[in-house]
Write a structure and sequence with these properties.
The chain contains 49 helices and no strands. By secondary structure, it is mostly helical. Among the domains are: 96 residues; 160 residues, no CATH class. Helix 5 packs antiparallel against helix 6. The longest helix has 36 residues.
């Protein structure tokens, strides 16, 4: 039998070990199983080993419960519902039964062993935590029976049994045990035991003692040696004091011991309110308000106010309720309430106001003339409070106010509030922030306003004001709507009866836009307006509308249009008087009246505008002249405009002569925009004005754009060349290198511009060299190099330019060639070696001779600028050679030799200086003969007289500022 039990135990624990995935759990389970297996294999086990096995079974049971609980928590509600909660803890129950039976078997076999109390205590705990059976209390009592009186296990058993009684709501039994436990503080849970004992006393209605124990618990909680249960104490201390009739004591406790007493005092107030203790409730709330205001705890103050609203409503303290609502609105105005609190305030006040509204209107139905005006005022005031609290829904509250007045037949006031609601929406709502509720209430407001007006009793002025407002806002909000379709006609009639005809015709236009199918009604409405102008002989307005219907407005029949035109003419001729004065001012006035009068055909208005333009030009007022000329363009048909082309070209030329280039360009461009491809002699003049005057105005880019734009208007190569040259010369004259090179890139294929391009680039080349602008110099050099290539596709300039370019490159080669001379030096050794010196000197002389021979080849090209540069290099070479010879010292030689050597070197230097003088003379003759303004002339001549003669000046525009050159070189 024992073998069978052991086998059962082993199988049970092995099975429960399978299926769980936690590595830590497996390790612990493995250790427990291993020890269980080892003990169960021992035969004739004594009490000590059996007790150890009992402990292991208990530990194994905890592990099983832990893992099964994980599986239970992972299951879905539907799975738990299907299988039942018990199915998830089957192994735990089996382990519990096994453990309990084993413990009882030990007690049965060794009833008085040293672990008897421990076994009963463990059995009690297992019964409580895993067994869910009736053995918990008996096992705890057996524990106390066998445990030494003052032992730790006895103390723990008392605590556990007291908690068992507490959970079973056996308050008296629990309290009795707590009395024994609390004789002296034996563990860190003393504060909790006091707290539990206080609850036992509370349930036993021993409030005074309960409060005392609760305070004792709080005192121990403040001691770090005991667990802190302040949160639980704070949660229920107020309840104890309320039910114990010691409200000031509870208030005082929270004020002294908490950082936010207001929060806890709210709970106290709810309890007293529930008990019907209004004065106590108000006392608590007043204290709470004082504390949170003193501590600047605004959120808590708001919560207190919200609680006040609920409490004052329940106790029917209407005045206090209103005061609190108004206070919340003021707080919202000062600084917005948090969203959740604001929503609660709005809901509470709205609900209460709705209740007041229902009460008022219910009473009003019985006896409308005897409603309570104070009640009405209170409701309206509450809604005003809501508009301050909930500003995004003011339209709703204005609607409710209007409805309240409407219910008691105060129609004038109702209309005012309905209109206020719509006006608020007009001012504050946009497509971005408007909600569906806003749209709904807008329609309700307008429908209610119209319904109110239908009740009558309004003054004519008020009726018109409200009706116009309702109609215009309705059609603006819902232009296409069955109700709007009827309102359009009503709005027209409203205006027409008041002779507000401008508004009346505007109503027709809006009606036509939304409902073009109702065009017959639109014609009838406008016909009524026209008839009115005929009766009142208002020719100005009549003329306007006749021209409109001539233009096709509302598709009037031709017979009606003709009849209206005839009537208009008859009325006009009655006012015509002859004007005899013929001066310009009078003429202007006459033409102006003709132009301004909309009754005249377009051609007449155009002629009048053109003559006004000519008269203003005669008065030298080009601004007004162009203004009226442009007006004539708007009215002249193409045929008449073309016939008047000579007048327009005259205007353009006269503007030019008056130095008003911009207006000459503008009118020329305007005319060409209408007649670009037509053939007429004046076209060339218009084109010339546009291009040449843009250049003259310092706008070559606009001239170039215009030349491209109007290319479709002309087929004249000569005009194109002249125009391009004027633009190019502007860039050259103003030293605008950026645009010059852009222009070159775009038009270098134009042979008519080639010579101008390269002549300018020759000047730019030497100029960039003078200003040390290598980027520009290099750019021009590349262009010149491309031109000299035999296979080049670039347009070739004149032979003179080609020769000048060749001279430039020859000079550049000469500069490179000269480096051999300048780079070779006669070495000055520590001991003079005559042979080596003579060899080196001879080589230096030969290099100078080669340089001079090369110079003659370049001089033969005949390019003055280049010749000056070559002479400059020769002089520098001779001067450099001279300095070297004079400075040379034959070290280590006798004094007689040195003197003879210096004499020989001086002779060589004299020969070199003669060369320099000859070169300088040639330079001066060349400059003087050709009046050269050259890059080199200030470098090579010292003839002050010649300088004065030639000036050595660059063109003025070049030397006035070098900023552009430097910018272009970056």
């Amino acid at each position: 039998m024992r073998k069978f039990i052991n086998l059962t135990i082993f199988i049970c624990f092995v099975l429960t070990t399978q299926g769980f995935s936690s590595d830590k759990w497996r390790e612990l389970s493995k250790l427990v199983d291993s020890e269980i297996k080892a003990i169960t294999q021992i035969k004739d086990r004594k009490a000590k080993l059996e007790y150890r096995l009992f402990e292991l079974y208990t530990e194994k049971m905890k592990l099983i419960r832990e893992e099964e609980n994980k599986l239970f928590l992972q299951a879905t509600p539907s799975e738990v519902g299907k299988l039942g909660k018990g199915a998830y803890f089957k192994n735990t129950r089996n382990a519990y039964t096994l453990t309990k039976n084993h413990g009882l078997s030990i007690l049965n076999k060794w009833p008085d062993n040293q672990h008897t109390a421990d076994i009963y205590y463990t059995l009690a705990l297992n019964s409580r935590d895993y067994g869910n059976d009736q053995y918990t209390e008996p096992f705890f009592k057996h524990t106390l029976r066998y445990a030494p009186k003052d032992s730790k296990i006895a103390h723990n058993a008392k605590i556990s049994l007291a908690e068992h009684y507490y959970n079973e709501k056996r308050w008296s039994d629990a309290f009795n045990l707590y009395q024994e436990i609390l004789v002296k503080p034996l563990d860190e849970f003393h504060s909790k035991h006091l707290y539990n004992s206080a609850w036992c006393l509370y349930q036993m209605r021993e409030f005074s003692a309960a409060i005392k124990n609760m305070h004792r618990a709080f005192a121990f909680s403040k001691n770090k040696n005991y667990i802190n249960i302040n949160e639980q104490i704070f949660d229920f201390m107020g309840l104890f004091h309320v039910d114990g009739k010691d409200i000031p004591g509870g208030v005082d406790f929270y004020v002294k011991n908490t950082t936010d007493p207001g929060t806890h005092l709210i709970k106290m107030a709810k309890r007293t309110a529930k008990n019907g203790q209004f004065e106590d409730t108000r006392y608590i709330l007043s204290k709470a308000l004082i504390e949170c205001q003193t501590r600047k705890q605004r959120d808590i103050e708001i919560n207190i106010r919200l609680e006040e609203l609920d409490i004052y409503r329940k106790f029917k303290k209407n005045d206090l309720h209103f005061q609190v609502a108004d206070t919340l609105a003021k707080m919202q105005t000062q600084s917005p309430l948090p969203t959740e609190q604001q929503a609660l305030a709005v809901k509470e006040i709205k609900d209460y106001t709705g209740y007041l509204q229902v009460r008022l209107t219910r009473n009003a139905k019985h006896k409308i003339q005897h409603y309570n005006k104070n009640d009405l005022a209170e409701i309206i005031s509450y809604f005003d409070i809501l508009t301050r609290l909930d500003k995004s829904n003011i339209d709703q509250y204005r609607f409710y106010q209007g409805e309240t007045f409407y219910a008691v037949k105060e129609y004038a006031q109702a209309a005012n509030y309905y209109q206020m609601g719509v006006e608020w929406g007009n001012k504050n709502l946009t497509p971005e922030n408007k909600t569906a509720d806003n749209e709904t209430f807008r329609r309700k407001l307008l429908d209610s306003l119209l319904a109110t007006l239908a009740e009558g009793g309004f003054s004519p002025e008020a009726n018109f004001k409200h009706t116009e407002f309702a109609y215009t806002n309705y059609i603006k909000s819902w232009p296409v709507d069955p109700k709007s379709q009827k309102i359009y006609e009503r709005l027209f009639n409203l205006y027409f009866q008041k002779t507000l005809l401008d508004k009346a015709v505007d109503a027709i236009a809006i009606y036509n836009k939304s409902y073009p199918v109702d065009i017959e009604k639109h014609r009838a409405m406008l016909g009524a307006v026209i008839d009115h102008y005929v009766k009142t002989k208002n020719t100005t307005n009549l003329a306007f509308w006749v021209n409109e219907i001539i233009g096709g407005l509302y598709s009037f029949e031709r017979t009606y249009v003709d009849k209206a035109t005839i009537i208009l003419g008859q009325l006009l001729f009655e006012k015509i008087q002859s004007v005899e004065n013929k001066n310009k001012d009078t003429a202007l006035e006459m033409y102006q009246r003709i132009y301004d009068n909309k009754i005249y055909p377009a051609k007449i208005k155009a002629e009048a505008a053109l003559w006004i333009s000519i008269i203003y030009l005669e008065k030298s007022n080009t601004k007004e002249s162009l203004n009226w000329a442009m007006k004539s363009f708007d009215y002249f048909p193409d045929k008449e405009l073309f016939e008047n082309r000579k007048k327009y070209v005259t205007l353009a030329n006269q503007y030019y002569l008056n130095q008003d280039f911009d207006r000459s360009i503008e009118i020329s461009a305007k005319y060409l925009s209408r007649f670009c491809k037509d053939e007429y002699s004046e076209k060339q003049e218009f084109l010339k004005n546009i291009i040449q005057l843009q250049v003259a105005s310092g706008k070559p880019d606009l001239a170039l754009t215009a030349l491209q734009e109007y290319k479709k208007c002309y087929d004249d190569r000569n005009f194109e060349i002249i125009s391009r040259l004027s633009i190019l010369n502007y860039y050259i004259l103003h030293n605008d290198l950026d645009n010059f090179f852009k222009f070159y890139a775009n038009y270098k294929k134009d042979l008519a511009l080639t010579e101008t391009f390269f002549s300018a680039m020759l000047n730019y080349y030497w100029h960039s060299l003078y200003l040390n602008q290598p980027a520009i110099n290099e750019k021009i050099s590349k262009i010149f190099k491309a031109v000299l290539e035999v296979s080049s596709s670039e347009p070739a300039p004149s032979s003179y330019v080609i020769s000048s370019i060749r001279g430039i490159f020859a000079y550049k080669e000469f500069m490179v060639f000269s480096k051999d001379f300048f780079n070779f030096n006669v070495e000055e050794k520590e001991e003079f070696d005559e042979k080596i010196f003579n060899e080196q000197l001879q080589k230096k002389v030969m290099l100078l001779k080669s340089l001079e021979d090369k110079a003659q080849e370049i001089i033969a090209l005949g390019q003055s600028d280049v010749i000056l540069g070559v002479y400059q290099i020769l002089n520098i070479a001779a001067e450099d050679f001279s300095k070297m010879l004079l400075a040379y010292n034959p070290k280590g030689m006798p004094e007689e030799f040195v003197i003879s050597f210096k004499r020989s070197m001086n002779q060589l230097v004299m020969n070199l200086q003669t060369k320099i003088s000859n070169n300088t003379r040639s330079i001066d003759q060349l400059i003087h003969k050709n009046q050269l303004i050259s890059y080199f002339n200030t470098e090579v001549t010292r003839d002050s007289k010649l300088r004065k003669t030639t000036g050595f000046q660059w063109p003025f525009v070049w030397r006035s500022s070098t900023v552009d050159f430097k910018e272009n070189d970056k």
